[in-house]
Amino acid sequence: MKQVRITVKRMARYDDLIAEYENPIEHACELRPGQTWIANGWERPEGFCPSAWETVSPFVMALAHGAENFYDGWMKNPRSAMISCNDGFRPVSFLLEVL
């Protein structure tokens, strides 16, 4: 099984949606651009957001087991994927790369 590097590439925040729809949450997301983790297949890396892991883990697992070329040429590097977490108020884009 291959290791997969997960890198925070971009973070967004939609304050208008937060103000209108979200109940106040403390420490909703404490990630930062450039932050990285190494994933060993199915195991969530220590310190990685559990909610984001639910979104990225199927792609991490597939890459760790040799999958390539998601969606017929979507990524320039066929052994990678750009996946965003499922937080509609503050989405985070993660680059997944096979090491």
General description of the model:
- By secondary structure, the protein is an alpha+beta fold.
- Helices cover 22% and strands 24% of the residues.
- It is built from two helices and four strands.
- The protein is elongated and about 40 Å long.
List the helices and strands and how they pair.
Elements: E1 4-11, H1 15-21, E2 36-39, H2 50-64, E3 80-84, E4 92-98
Structural class: alpha+beta
Whole-number mean pLDDT: 94
What is the count of structural domains? 1
Radius of gyration (Å): 14 Å
C-alpha termini separation:
11 Å
Strand content bin: 15-25%
For the sheet with most strands, the description reads:
4 strands, antiparallel
Number of helices: 2
The helical percent reads 10-25%
Read across the widest sheet, the strand sequence of neighbours is 2-1-4-3
Order of helices and strands: EHEHEE
- Work out the number of β strands: 4
Based on Cα principal axes, name the global outline.
Answer: elongated
Spans of at least 5 consecutive residues whose pLDDT stays below 50 are none
Oligomerization: single chain
